[in-house]
Request: fold
Amino acid sequence: MNNSQNINNQKHLKQFRKTLRSNLTPAEAKLWLCLKNKQLDGKRFRRQFSIGNYILDFYCPEQKIAVELDGKHHFTPEGRMIDDERDLFLSAQGIRVLRFENIRVFQQLENLLEEIKMNFIS
Reply:
């Protein structure tokens, strides 16, 4: 078993992932409508996928891209510190993290989707 299989979707987080999938924020629900079923450039995204002890809002395994939607708690000093630690861990796993403010989903959805596509590697 390789290392990525050891750290992806760990069993101790299964119920929490399921709860998060059942209780998406309005921004997550709206973005999911655009990402599910390979709607964005034919790329498969998963929602509430865990890597290590971190649960990602959306993850594209083929591209190793995490898409995170950030609410107001992410913009506090503590929130930024937690996000920095998380991003450092994910980067060490070869995962690129794209962060967007929740409001962009509602005000600039097409631009946000284009920004995600610009990060795809052919």
